[in-house]
Fold these 4 entries.
Entry 1:
Amino acid sequence: MRNKYFLIGMSLFALFACVAQGTELPTITLKNGASELIVHGKPYLILGGELGNSSAGTEAQADTIQPRLASLRVNAVLIPVAWEQMEPTEGTYDFRILDHWIDVARQHQLHLVLLWFGSWKNGFSDYAPGWVKADTQRFPRARSIDGAPLDILSTFGEETQRLDSRAFAALMAHVRKIDPQQQTVLMVQVENEVGYRGDRRDRAAEANRVFNDAVPQSLLQALQSKRGALTPELGAQFNPRGQTWNQVFGDAADEAFMAWRYATYIDAVAQTGKEQYALPMYHNAQLPAPMERAGEYPSGGPHPYYQQIYRAVASHIDFYFPDIYWPEFAHWVQRYQALDNPIFIPEAKIDSAPYNALYAYGEAKAFGSSPFGIDNLPLPSNETDPLPLITQVYGALNELGDLLPPAQAEGRTRGMVLHASGPRPSQTVALGGYLFQAALSRSWPAKTLLTDDGGMLVLESHPNEFYVVGSGLTVTMTRDPDVDSRFAGISSIEEMCGSGTHWTVLRRLNGDQSNQGRQLAMDAHQIRIYRVRLYAAIR
């Protein structure tokens, strides 16, 4: 009871303090397909990196890792906060390590996104406290189809949900106490890649009882109200005239049931946290690999197939997004866009992250991207070695500065990625009355590929003027016939460096560097910023 009154008191104290000082919390907006994170009243672009799972557990790690990430041009670090470490003894909270991470982040002008590893991480319960793991009567386990207990806390554990929620509320109350003005902490991820790992769904006694009962009317009504907009996977199974889970969801009953249970649990945790400090909160998903079945991937996670169940239940989660490790990056981004999620890539494969980031910020108009294991990225051994590619991308985006967020919001950006192993040799995007057709860079005259990968972000800065960020592509620009019948030409191509509106021309590209004024020939391996001026003339 004392913990309850402590949290209520902390909440009221922090609320009055923030109101008195006029502090606005970070917020996320989605308008015209563009996502914005507003911090201190201005759009903030997260150039992020997620730490390895075991990289944020000590103060010494903060001292060594965060300065290094700042040198890699990362501006926001996604760090795990483990329930087991924060509450090693029931009812006793230890925030010393988190406080040190926040202090060091401030010293290096970094922001943090907290990843709450509570009851689940990657479907399992490894980050729950030892006193939770050891008491299977009080904190029941999910069970397999043969009745054996698993290393997974059951979503039906009432005491588990209560204490997970209490710990998360204590975390948010503490962050609100120490961080309302600086807002070093921008967002919070609630749990991590949840889902049942086994044969589709939990077979504990209580789970079986509820599964054989009627689907909650509130869920039925919410899905029925969106009947025409359900995903193909959910729409093909949904039968609002049924009663039990099997009758309503058919072959998808097991996964739909687990989605409902995880969403219910996660919403309860998020609600208690938001009552203390209403930062934006999101939840991530582990995507299915090709040919995987539910249970091989975490069954019941917020995958796009059945995510609308989450959206019907978990009103305190602001958005969902997947951790993308598979080649179909654009496909998965588009699936989550179609469900009206703001675009933030919480975790991605680091070796493909640089070009995918150009797609995310340019084409999907994301407010952030974050490759996983950023702390393992090697630094150059000497000054002449090139910086890591993600560092080059982040550096170029930082140079665009305040140009990028309004351009995203006004539909003045595009992006693309090409791979030698991909399905098409070239791609075209339209912007500002022009078509930008790109192909991977080739040598001349042998026409052999110079790189296996390339990508670009195109930003229209003024009529007929564009900033192009990227590498590995040769780009041909023509007039868009859907706009008018004029023909297009290149007035000038310049390699640039600078910050926002203050630019320096490094080189003016002519002759062989522009295919005699006909194409933008990007550097095959290094990220550059190019300013391209075009003209449209009457034929």
Entry 2:
Amino acid sequence: MLKDNDQNRKPLMFYVAIAAAVILLLNAFVFPALLQRQVQEVSYSEFLKMVDAGKVTDVSLDQNNAQLIFLAKEGEDQGIFKTAVFPDDSLRERLEKAGINFAAQIPTSNSPLVNFVISWVIPILLFWIMGRLLSKRMGSAMNAMSFGKSNAKIVASEETGVTFADVAGEEEAKDALKEIVDFLEHPGKYASIGAKLPKGALLVGPPGTGKTLLAKAVAGEAKVPFFSISGSEFVEMFVGMGAAKVRDLFKQANEKAPCIVFIDEIDTIGKKRDTGAGIGGNDEREQTLNQLLTEMDGFDGKKGVVILAATNRPESLDPALLRPGRFDRRIPVELPDMAGREAILQVHMKGIKQEDRIDLKEIARATSGASGAELANIVNEAALRAVRMGREKVCQEDLMESVETVIAGYQRKNAVMSENEKKIVSYHEIGHALVAAMQTHSAPVTKITIIPRTSGALGYTMQVDEDEHFLMSRDELYNKIVTLTGGQAAEQLIFGSITTGASNDIEKATRMARSMVTRYGMGDFGMVAMETLNSQYLGQDTSLACSPAYAEKIDDQVVRLVESARKKADGILRENEGKLHELASYLLSKETITGEEFMKILKGEQAEALPAGEANTASGL
């Protein structure tokens, strides 16, 4: 589907016609006036007065037009003038008496230099401006002089500024790339034994995990030039341009060898080719891919040209691109674990003024599933918050608040909620927290708040696991669904009705229950995959892989699973209704409470600053 900009884009002839019309109008009306010098017309009597006053210096006769052309150079009457010729026998004598030259031809046009500027320089300048506007409008299709050029960004070895010390949390990927660095630094020891370096390495992983940074680090460590180009830059309007750019890129790389060639988002040109069964294949993209395959086969890996590429969609790449001899190695760049997140935070905190007692391990524990780019954003948000709060150093509170900002958005401190809505949100969030605390295999509650966020959440309950988990049992998944249903269950129990506040909980619970049935073998079907994950690194893009009859059975199992979880949550809340009232009242008065405060009240310990009579008032709801 075309974008709005593409639909509104005018054809090339439209702009050519406008340019031609502008040039014609300039030639017809503007340039003639500019090429001629300004000549003023006066009466014959005025001409005689100027002669007698000594203001006229030169006079010439234009016999074709029966006019006198004269030049005045004194006083306010400077310039070229003309007047009609009248029979006057005494005129010659009067001119000679006044010492006026009357035989010279007075030029009425500009100098050749001025005429050249007006006739040639100005039109050329106009054409150049129109060309720049058209090139911006039409893209590289208008840049005929760069046809077939790769436009790759070349960074010298001393200018990369990135080494493996700047990359944290991806130790496995760095280990896999260190051999490439060693080959570029010491090719002789590999050649002596007859070993060949892999021609290409493919970096795969979710967005923001540092694939481009790793490629720059390889070039920085090996101290070789670094070519960087995006896969989308190969796909052009004209047929054959993409293939020409590939040829030019490899030509430059061979001239600069040893070097690193990095192709970002290679899936743009490396998608699986059309098998012939479908209609509408992109011939230009396939020609570009074919040329890339040919070039990777043709160049000599012993010269030290290493091809690195990155993608978020390895499943869409053509098998010919991944075979040995092209991209020999596939290096996963996964989301960092807790130790990796802590190392990444340490790297980004180096340039930040911070207090002495900063616990980055706590931040790493609270950011499970975050990428390196998100962690960098969290550190930056913490620094910005410290400035807003008038501090000169970042503290632990800034970092924790920035984690919540990235997860749930900024606090909407000016949002006005009615007291009734605040009570509903309080019971909703305490419902989540109470159900989670009363179950096994559930992450501890660390924070509960009813302050609205810019993401649309009116409140949220934060749970943070103490350790990193890579596997989840059926009980853990089921208990998560029970916790998600706890908010709406609390609303139904206390107020006798439900609100729209549980929409996000419902989506998460349904998605989790469906995955248990269709992908994890935790339903009635056993070890049978009823759903496939289309993209490993780009979210929950799934598609059913079963008949319509089984699709109905899947829906029935998902509904039964969520209903069972909701009944369990109802039972937990009814058994602990007194604590539900007490905790909701405390949250309503404080708006934000920590996990420690929550557990103190739940265990029967005295809570701080709990208003007298508040729990009794809430109990009457």
Entry 3:
Amino acid sequence: MTHRYRLGIDVGGTFTDGILINEDTGGTRIVKVPSTPGDPSVGFLAAVERILREAGIGAADVGYLVHGTTVATNAIIEGKLAPAGFITTEGFRDMLEIQRQIRPSLYDLLFEKPRPLAPRYLCFGIPERLDASGSVVTPLDEQAVARAAETLRKEGVESLGVCYLHAYRNPEHERRTREIVHEVFPEAAVSLSSEVAPEFREYFRASTTLVNAGVRPVVERYLSSIEARLRDAGFKGQLLVMQSSGGVLTFEAARTKPVFMVESGPAAGVIVSAHLGEVLGFDNILSFDMGGTTAKTGLVEQGAPGITKEYEVGAAARAEHGAKGAGYPIRTPVIDLVEIGAGGGSIAWVDSGGVLRVGPRSAGADPAPACYGKGGTEPTITDANLVLKRLDPDHFLGGEMRLDEDAAWRAIEEKCAGPLGLDVVAVALGIVEIANSAMVGALRRISIQRGHDPRDFTLVAFGGAGPVHANRLAAELDIPAVLVPMSPGTTSAMGLLVTDIKHDYSATLIQRTDALDPEQVDRLYRGMEERGRKALLAEGMGHAGIGFERHVDMRYVGQSYELSIPLDDGGAGGALQSMLRKFHAEHERAYGFAAPEEPVEFVTLRLTAVGNIAKPKLRELPRGDGDAAAARRSVRQVYFAEAGGFVDCPSYDRYRLPAGGAVEGPAIVEEIDSTTVIHPGFHAGVDRFGNLLIRPAR
């Protein structure tokens, strides 16, 4: 009998992870191969080939493959967007130059705005005008559109974005513009603001559309290359890609709307955290994903990941995530993440003032940390953990890669300890603690600064380096428990396989709640639902597997920012009082105050069309006697600051830990793709699925 398998491939900055699930048995197989930053598809295909070979199956046995990728984000960060043109309403061609008045650092006189997404000579103002209701004030000048398209063709652009004023109300001028452009310049990829981000606020809509236009040829080439090679290898299943909001898109949909997948990789980690929480009974979760290049934190409240529409992409935005005005705003749903440059490969260095610093620069996959023996000479967090003996040089990646302890020691001594005049071990501890401090800051930003108390949450730690640091972070923030899933190094890849197909739609409707037209609201929602149902049916979903989630962006009249509130069943009319109560409560939580006596208005209607996919089951461990002693591998000296230095520390083979087993700290738990460090004063229990739950010792 031929088994049906699901395959998830997550391309990270240092490693490309693969996870293969047998749909019949729930059995999993994992693989990690070095990423290939020059061409991510090489690492992707290497992971696919290896995991299929090791499983002894063919590509035809895989039912569907889901891919998490940073190719769109990397194109923006590295400035490798395709040449794009911009068509807008006459008088507004400088929109991309002007951008916004805000800046990320108020008193930074040397701050430079991000480079415009399209240079001014490739921006064209077309005589046309719609009013705020969508009525035509000035008809579209079709000959001006044709002239602009001809000029863009001669200039060699590959793609262009169209953003007319108030096109979110009436898309006819934009659609006609695309028809004209295709007549004059048929090879151009045209992105319309009314399709990509049909919302008010012209610059945000234009920015989202231009980001889509710029990454579209890059993503199209990447996905087409992967698809062609997979089909040649005999793969006949469905190809899906993770999107920023936590759903998956077909390759076909991702080719036309790649802006929806700019945070494709990191989103999977938050989704799998929510899935684990649902299965294990934890409603409130802080996800902590520390890989080789970055550390990412997300928040799940009452089983639902936080979603934001206030998101920026770009090099500066990556360095200081969330700094408004540092990057290009995009108005598509993105899982709310705080990301910092603190991964296992983050480089430690001494600045001009003689202060030890860590990151944001990373050794990545090439040249990699010094201890990898690939020619790297810069000390990294991984090197520091090796010097502190928290990593076993002989059991890294299950013994597949031997770590060079001498190279790690030498790198820290030459680059940091020597210049500082300090002991190598003391500096290694300093590197780890500085990184921990940065990660505690990230966890504070995603929780406390969003109005949440971390003491009410469980920390789910994964990524190759996450479980090494998680116990210390939880202790710092008084988080009561740390959950370390099986195979944490490939947990993000698992997240690709536990999510549903999703399409997001929005419609601007600015109306006060005391003058709301419920029929208009329902009519707009029904229209979006029809588009969503049509898209999901075209992608092979059955009617029974299709569902819809409605949200409304609401604000007090006069405000310029909104909060997203779920719309209860029963339509806008019956649910209005309930929604107002939820809005006031959410405003109180988010901003510290509410004003129930003030008038409230709807701003944007949002709909998510969901195609439900059967979730793979977690595999249960066989029942044992609960004695962890048989899993003990060895005892070695490991450095813990709270113990005053190196202390005897047993190491355990995670695959031999039984359900119901307990491990007392200090202890190290090792597996192929990660190492879990349990500090003195803590203990870890093993649940029936093999997850480790670390709590303070009683």
Entry 4:
Amino acid sequence: MHKAIPDLKDQYEKGKMTRREFLRYASLLGMSLGAAQALIAGCAPPATEVPPTEVPPTPTTAPAVPTPTTVPAGPRRGGTLRVRGNIGRIDHPARFSWVANSNPARHVAEYLTLTDENNITHPYLLDSWEASDDLLTWTLNLRQGIKWNNGDDFVADDVVFTMEEWLDEEVGSSTLGLMSYLTEENIEKVNDHTITLHLDSPQIAVPEHLFHYPNQIMNYRTFEGDFIQAPVGTGPYTLDEYSEGERVVLKARADYWQTGADGQPLPYLDEMVYIDLGEEVSAWIAAFQGGEIDAISEPEATVFLALQDDPNANIMGTPTGQTRVLRMRVDKEPWTDNNVRMALKLCQDHEKILAMAHFGEGAPGADFHVAPVHPAYCERPIPPYDPDRARSLLEKAGYADGLTVEIAVASDWTDVVSYAEILKQDAAPAGFDIQINTMPVSAYWDLWTEVDLGVTPWTHRPLGTMVLSLAYTCDDEGEPVPWNETRWCDDEFTSLLTQAEGTLDVEERRQIMCQLEEIQYERGSIGIPYWQGIWMIAHKKVQNWKGHPTQYDLFNELWLEEA
């Protein structure tokens, strides 16, 4: 048992953390979920002692959607699951910048760990892990007996090779920023099934970082930079067809390493097909209602509203840290001036934007990238809409006659377009003339880190510190990490973030998060209009259907009531 676990148990018993948080941190420290549950059995903390911020606000309706499903006595085998999805261009998985690209691929290539719908991280390709007392050394024990779909053995060389790809600056993976505490030289292969990571700074969330969606493990013998050209993975399916913008066909393996809850080999399905139905959401709805597809990956709020009363729809809803980020390049005029950045943020009416752009399905943001669902969230007031103060700040920055700016948005994301239109209208009294530049989603992803002003969707992460590391830090030379789209760097912020990442005590970490949130609001580079409630939607014949806050398609154990 890690020496910190008794302290965590003590915090739990004193009401300083929730049961779920105890299980989460005990699991991250290498304790099995069953052992962690047994350790606190019968010692629930007094509800009155749980800090209010440990119980995050819930989107208005998302989790309350009924999910009436009649589950057969046991899984049925066979059949094809048809899924609506965006089929984008894929080459190196480590460069994924969009969850949609990872979803078809995750059924072929897998991860070392898996963070489930309850925010608990489990071993996956790993059998277990252990952390040193100071959180500076992590030992990863690989599961043995796993075969790649070409017959090769899964071994430590595959993991070392893949991690080195993540940390190679020329590859350009976002993991380079997320795992900045690790260098290629500090990855030690102990033997064919054991790896030791020697970190530059303490880090509690290593297992969660291993489930970051670009972190799919590659076969070191076959991977040369393009997964479509050599789709060798350890997953339950093989890649039979990949047509960008059209469809993906996945065929079940007969020799997959996992078994289901019934003890039988996975997967239960014969085949999965992802179908790209284009940008028109009405086409997704019609295809579902017409029986042409069985599930909708990453549905928008309009899809939920259209199908929430459909008797054939099984809808799983969840509150998340998913959001739309108003991002400003601090190395480009006029956004170099914090007065201008703050002026634009003050032009947001957060409650109005949530109500009109996302139909009220979520929670208002407060212009820092930590959500109420995140552990150790520090509650702050929602900033008021204040065009008068915004105009004063523009005048202070030298724009007494107003300022014309262009904002880039993807036309596919209807709530993003609505957000931009509302912002344009509400910023006019402050002196902003906002020109909206709409483009296809593929075009936006081609230049999302390059535009001066834009709105970028960011998906949920289980920890607030994860997205802060990914998007708002720089390396030791002062260069922005790959996903730092705003180029914002702040030494005090980075120092506090490193401290937070190695702090286990919930209340101590919360105090650090309060400082991080304050800094990002007062001198940061973003606005956060709202946090989204999200849904996963499937036909009621799809069995064992579960939601996931990051909208990951985890379909290994699905089956069809009618094969």
